[in-house]
Structures are given as C-alpha cells and as structure tokens.
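Q: Now give one record:
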Amino acid sequence: MESRDRDEEGRPRQARPRDELGRPLPYGAEGVEPVSEDPLPPLETVRFAIDLLDQGRPFSAHEVFEARWKDAPEAEHDLWQGLAQLCVGLTHAMRGNATGAGRLLERGNGRLERYAATGRPTYGLDLAEFRTRIHRAAGTD
C-alpha cells in the first residue's frame, strides 16, 4: 500500500507535480512551480495573484488568495475568500466543469459584493474590473 505524502509535521501534503490548472501529474513529470502556503502581505498577495492569472495559472492564484484569507482579519474574509472563489471558479471553467464554475463564480461574486458595500480597502484592486476579467476568461460574461 502506498503511503500518503506528508510534510515534516506529518500533515498530508501533495508532493506530485501539478499542471497550470492544479491537476496532479505523475511523479517525476515536470509541473508548474508550486506557490507557498504562507500568506503574503495584502499588496503582495494582489500583485502575485494577478501575475499568476496573467500566466494562465488561476489555480495557483486561488491558493495565494486562500492563504491570505486564512490569515486575514475577519473583516476582510469576504474579500480574500471571494477572490479565491473566483479564481477556482475560473479553474473549473478551464477544466470544462461548467456547473462547478458557475457555483463558485456566483459565491465569489456574492462575497465581493458584500465586501465592496463595506467600503473597506481593496488593496489597489478594482473589484468590478477583476470580476469582469474572471467572467470573461471563464466565458460567462
């Protein structure tokens, strides 16, 4: 029986390489560079995630936003979780899963709408423009 990949603390970790859409590849295959699970400061999070989207890596952008969401103050959870959900929704769309994409895009939109109504900071990100970009790329605009 094959054992699961684990980190130094014994937590499950996927050591298989991944493609640009986060799909596991066979051990030994060349995948994309993984992103750190450590959260970045807000402005760096936005810049890095946008760079990943520009590279066609929405799953990795989702992971960057997710790390920030898990470390953010509760008042910002809708922002970071909404951004992560839009990116993983785009990932599903690019993988051909229209149903999953639609659900995640809808959830992400709702979170970002709630967050935008608070007037809290968006760290230089135009939320409406970001949503339009993701929906256009997902083919749902």
